[in-house]
Fold this protein.
Amino acid sequence: MIAVHIERGRLSLRRRPRPHGPPGFALLRVLAAGICNTDLELRRGYYGFRGTPGHEFVAEVVEADTPALVGRRVVGEINLNCGRCEWCARGLGRHCPRRKVLGIVGHPGAMAEFVTLPEANLHTVPAAIPTEEAVFVEPLAAAGEILDQARIPREATVAVLGDGKLGLLIAQVLAAHGSRVHLFGRHREKLRIAEAAGVQAELAGARLPRAAYDRVVDATGSAEGLRAAVAMARPRGTVFLKSTVHDAVKLDAAPVIVNEITLVGSRCGRFPPALRLLASGKVRVAGMISERLPLSRAPRAFRLAATRGALKVLLEAG
């Protein structure tokens, strides 16, 4: 099979044997995989990564211990936990110290013709969701994690900083929840996507509002985003950290301490709510697809995904 390979900042296509998982794992034929900011960071050296990336995907089940899964379209949770440690026993398998992470830590990712995952990680995709839109389930689940981490009353005002792929998803998820979302970004065409979902969006100028929000989400994907988000938060406000940045982040802790700001790291989320949002049409992602290319053109796809202003670039089977 063909698979994308990253090593020492270089990306190539390689031929590899079709993978085989242990009992309880399914063999999946990848239909489409999305390139996200984490994948771009892996290419830049994040985690000292070496291997096949890709954790946003839709696939068809080829082989499984559960016959009913064969032939079904599925998406998959990316954390492969041990199932035996204290964290797993507490229902916190995403934080299992021995976990592997699809396409990031210790388990080959979905930018390949085939991939394996535990059947327990799989979720069937409803027929109403097109394959290219189902690719967004993983980042959409991550966006929804904010609502599981904090009680945000309906009609509460929330600022989202950053109009990239994740920022747009977070803004839409919060708007679907009933929040009054103020999205700040640097690309007028991206902000229009959020506005179509009922989000108040504006271009971020040199001066952002200061001490204006009880809740701020940093989805800038930049080292400067956290500092800006902290400045936007009111005393005793909450800042949700959604950016994965390879570089060290410099932060003056004084405003955080003096203003008693709560910082909440936020990563993966639950898939079922994300699937329901997509199926309901409350979150629209079709307009967030910039390009669709075959897996064989992965080097070009990565170049396009790294272009300023690009949204989701898909690698598709065929």
Notes: The two ends are 12 Å apart (CA to CA). The chain is about 25% helix and 30% strand. The first helix runs from residue 37 to 44. Residues 32 and 316 are 4 Å apart (CA to CA).
